[in-house]
Amino acid sequence: MTAVSRPPSVDALARSLSDSGLPHPICVDLAREAIADDDIESAPRRADAFRRTLLTDVVNATGVLLHTNLGRAPLAHHQDAQAQTVEFDLATGERGSRQTAVGQLFARLTGAEDSMVVNNNAAAVLLVLAALAAGRDVPVSRGESVEIGGSFRVPEVMEQSGCRLVDVGTTNRTRLSDYQRAIARPGTDVAMVMKVHPSNYRVDGFVEDTSIAELATLDVPVMADIGSGLLDANVPWMKGAPPAWLASEPAAVQAIGDGADVVTFSGDKLLGGPQAGIIAGRADLVDRCKRHPLARALRPGGLVLRSLQETALTYLDRRAATEIAFWRMVDRPLSELGAAAERIRAALANDHGVDPDRLSVEESLALPGAGSAPGITMPSRALVVDGDHLAALRSAPVPVIARTRDGRTYLDLRAIDPSQEPHVVAALAAALADA
Predict the structure, then answer these.
(1) What CATH number does domain 100-300 carry, 3.40.640.10, 3.30.499.10, 3.40.1050.10, 3.30.830.10?
(2) Which positions of the chain have pLDDT values less than 50?
């Protein structure tokens, strides 16, 4: 009789997966699954599939510079494993506030009296409303009662904060008189008015809205949720005039200057920093936010604070144009993008024998993304290949995330850093070889 073959031991199969880079306990689980399914040969594929469920560095070739699914603003940050003064006052030797260091920097950057940080902009909006308007009324234009990504709805956030939404105006036209009537209506207890940047859509045509400067003439505080994190519409950290695509984007400096009592915005969009929400404005109102019980639940940790501090210092030193990845992307001239495309084509031809005629360099349109400057695009350049190669590009050791249109694959160059070009070459070479 022929001896019945036995499967390898779980431990032996798990150790054979060590090259995957996964911890041994994970490899043990995957080995058990493969043995249970009587499919031992699938163990390496299972390990690779599991590894790809973890957070992984990728190349963003989509043309969406602040891609929400890819972490929005790309950010490099290193921090030594050392204690730091998160809540320690070096002058007194006593406990301090984690809001002091970064808060003073963003107050300086925005022209506000004070500032504080929470973990994202939704948290910033929630905290301001809870601290300043719980149990009271907050008029909002119907055209600004919006839903943005991830089912974040302004009415629902306001409900959670404990304040009452008062709709004013219409979807396309809201005037100062609409707010005035809401404030004067008998039985209404208005704590503030809130202006919301629509973020990911715009209404054109027969439209009218009320500016922050107009709202500032009312007898109640004005809260402006400007969303995308543009610090200053004049972009003083860049050479030349502000980019045309920023023309309609609200900015913190101008919102404070126009009379907003509180502004909220994101840290990981146009600011180019880590995910965070910044609250800036009148010192008494920001202090009420700091003292609210939700402030502790929504506060960021030391890693975010340190990263955000470095981002703020970069702006104050006027180094943002070269050291903030997002602003480097938008400032790249078309000639540089074209040269990058030709370098990739040449490397494919010289190192991998790929016919350069299989790839064309074409005009493209990139966009800021993440709800910033909705409907606005900027000229770019893309490498274009016939066929749909998205899956093959994603399967590369360093995945490349591209897009398709009309049966062709487009790799937009604007968000691809020159240091990533070898990864693009490797991914394209493998994809075209498979094809």
Answers:
(1) 3.40.640.10
(2) 1-2
